[in-house]
Design a protein that fits this description.
The chain is an alpha+beta fold. Keywords: Inflammatory response, Nucleotide-binding, Repeat.
């Protein structure tokens, strides 16, 4: 049994009921709305599934509480066990009326403190969807509010200042580093709050409470006051929860009808949606939306978070053999939630990408978060006699901006999506407790699928910092190999954009020859390698690890001329293919006025868009240049001139990545050109020109909540 870290007395005094939460590294979120709010606590500490702690938080525990001197809150406490993280994206950052606290222990080395804070800040940033209308400087109109808290100051033997508060020597470099990385994406508080773990009435605690109260009051000042309808709904919800039955789920239309029938027959749907959003912010209900489960109202979040998810994903679940593969019988799911309608429950869990129903065997359900089988299939088998006639290729998806792991739980969701894809595209007569033979195999941090003579392995690599997709097949099936790789990459990138809409991924390519030789480490080619080679008129790249060159065709298309000849590469790809997040970053770089004129204005003239200069120049004198969200409170920021420039320029057929990159270098903006070089797409296929290629079979991908 794992030992339990010491609990901070001061943090326990901040709100009651948190005595079973480690404060080594975690994040809390206060969501004040009207008279209440939500406090969320979660930790990045990875706990082995075999480690059981009777006092540990299971899934998400919710309680109402009062923070002394601040106000009433609904406290959401998230388990640090990563098995539960596959559901956190629906609750962690789904409301703008929030204050997030990221806590880390000052006992840890500085590098660990920076790593832990970066992980959580990157998670919050990744969960924030981008705005389609990009504001000046790429600013967000309502960035999440974040407070950094260093704990165990007394244990770390920090000295006190003249006012009695702790002084941390590395506070300024830590805040500077984090602000440089996230200051334009999140509203970071101006200081690091350093906590004394043994003094609940210390000045440090009082400063933190005062800051929380200030933030809370600011948020409440922008919220609508509690209406009579809301007061009646808050009073009525407890009785509705009792009448709803075993599942605390209700369709939006039924919720609307009940409100009109029992509370106010004149209430409109639009007005009720606003009230429901406020109830959502208060933690009274939770609104869940999906194209498969339309507008579901979760009447009691505790039922799902503290009940169903805690039992389903618990490490105490019986350890039958098939459970090590993450597969359950529907009857076992029913036993974990005996009072629930299991079919209705599975629809919601399926829409949340927590489980996947096996269409070839409807009595079985895949729950990848519970897989305990280790990497038995992390490399290709070597039993094929025709090994030399196989072709290989691969892609690695990584976060483009910050070298940090993907948020925990992402790969479990990817496994769910791949299970769903496999179930929808294949049939089999396998045994009840076995996955379809040859179609899909799952293990911890890995998946293996096959289709049409090609097979793929999808792996979580580099300590969670990359998702790697390797594909191989017979050399006579090169187009099918490309199709399978394209399908797997598309599923992965679609999941990233829906689950982590604020995370910008980059696509790297793996050396096909080294994959065939099965020798590591594998050479990884980045977008900049292809674009630089194109600029020099080359169509191959140097593998410095292997001592040879590899052609674009072999790296990008398995050497298939049918695919490669109907594609565009790097510099020739149209600017409209550059992602919204990449455009937003360019706006941050080019919008602020430059002393030498090397900004959007001169770029517009170089691109022949002089009409935009007069249109937007009048806004420059009143628009902040490069302020962080913490200091810039303009409620209606002006439109980004760089975004308008790219929008107008993209209507031209000759507006390519290569042209823009050249203009940026002529302008002397190497920073913007290098960023474009780093994140631009490398390869685009005109699907209609490829027989059997392109994105075949993608019709089975399910939308996400």
């Amino acid at each position: 049994m794992a030992s339990k870290p010491a609990v901070s007395v001061s943090i326990s005094n901040l709100y009651p009921g948190c005595e079973n939460v480690s404060v080594r590294s975690r994040s809390m979120m206060f969501e004040p709305s009207l008279t209440k709010g939500v406090l969320e606590v979660f930790s990045p500490v990875t706990t082995a599934l075999s480690s059981v702690d009777d006092l540990a938080t299971r899934a998400i525990e919710i309680q109402n509480s009062n923070i002394n001197g601040v106000g009433d809150f609904s406290v959401w406490e998230f388990s640090g066990n990563t098995v539960y993280h596959c559901c956190y994206d629906y609750f962690v950052a789904n409301d703008p009326t929030a204050i997030h606290l990221i806590l880390f222990s000052l006992e840890e080395p500085y590098e660990m403190q920076l790593s832990q804070a970066t992980y959580w800040l990157n998670t919050l940033k990744a969960l924030t969807p981008p705005q389609h209308n990009i504001a000046f400087g790429g600013r967000l109109q309502n960035p999440l509010k974040v407070v950094l808290v260093g704990t165990h100051a007394d244990v770390a033997s920090l000295i006190r200042g003249p006012g009695g508060e702790f002084c941390y020597a590395k506070e300024k470099p830590l805040l500077k580093e984090l602000r440089n990385r996230f200051g334009l994406d999140l509203q970071l508080s101006e200081r690091l709050f350093v906590m004394d773990t043994g003094a609940s009435n210390s000045k440090d605690i009082k400063l933190l409470r005062s800051h929380l109260l200030e933030l809370r009051n600011t948020i409440l000042s922008t919220c609508n006051p509690m209406s009579g309808l809301m007061e009646r709904l808050v009073a009525t919800l407890p009785s509705w929860r009792k009448l709803t039955g075993p599942n605390q789920l209700m369709s939006w239309q039924q919720f609307l009808c009940d409100v009109q029938e029992h509370i106010n027959p004149l209430v409109s749907e639009d007005h009720l949606r606003g009230v429901a959003q406020q109830l959502h912010s208060m933690g009274e209900i939770n609104l869940m939306q999906s194209e498969t489960v339309q507008d579901v109202v979760l009447l009691d979040p505790r039922w799902l978070c503290s009940g169903v998810l805690a039992r389903l994903l618990s490490m105490d679940t019986p350890k039958a053999i098939h459970h090590y593969r993450g597969r359950y019988r529907v009857e076992e799911i029913q036993a974990l939630a005996p009072e629930s309608d299991v079919e209705e429950l599975l629809q919601v869990l399926d829409a949340m990408d927590i489980c996947a129903r096996d269409l070839t065997n409807p009595g079985m359900v895949d729950v990848p978060a519970l897989i305990k089988t280790n990497g038995l299939h992390r490399s290709w088998t070597e039993e094929e006699e025709d090994h030399d006639v196989l072709v290989y290729g691969g892609v690695r998806l990584v976060p483009a901006e910050h070298l940090t792991p993907f948020p925990c739980g992402l790969f479990h969701k990817l496994q769910v999506n791949l299970c769903r894809w496999s179930h929808q595209h294949h049939t089999g007569d396998d045994a009840v407790d076995e996955p379809p033979d040859g179609d899909i195999r799952l293990w911890t941090n890995g998946v293996k699928v096959s289709q049409g003579g090609a097979e793929a392995m999808i792996l979580l690599v580099n300590h969670g910092q990359g998702v790697e997709i390797q594909v191989r097949g017979h050399e006579s099936e090169r187009a099918k190999c490309y199709t399978l790789l394209d399908t797997m990459v598309t599923i992965s990138e679609s999941l990233l954009s829906s689950t982590l809409p604020g995370l910008l991924p980059a696509r790297y390519y793996l050396s096909p020859q080294q994959l065939q030789e099965q020798h590591g480490p594998i050479m990884v080619y980045q977008p900049k390698d292809f674009l630089r080679a194109q600029t020099q008129g080359e169509s191959s790249l140097s593998n410095t690890m292997g001592g040879y060159r590899e052609s674009f065709s072999s790296i990008l298309a398995f050497g298939c001329a049918e695919v490669y000849n109907h594609s565009r590469q790097g510099r020739d790809i149209h600017i409209s293919q550059v992602s919204l997040l990449a455009r937003r970053k360019l706006c941050r770089l080019l919008d602020p006025p430059d002393a030498l004129g090397k900004d959007w204005c001169l770029l517009a003239m170089n691109l022949g868009l002089t009409q935009l200069v007069a249109k937007h120049s009048s806004n420059l004198s009143t628009t902040p240049t490069n302020e962080s969200p913490a200091t810039n409170t303009d409620p209606s920021p002006s439109t980004s001139p760089t975004a308008e420039l790219l929008k107008d320029w993209s209507v031209r057929p000759d507006s390519t990545v290569g042209v823009l990159m050249g203009k940026l270098r002529e302008l002397g903006r190497r920073d913007a050109a290098d960023f474009l070089l780093k994140t631009s797409p490398v390869f685009r296929v005109q699907v209609e020109g490829v027989v059997g290629g392109g994105r075949a079979g993608l019709g089975g991908i399910r939308p996400h909540l």
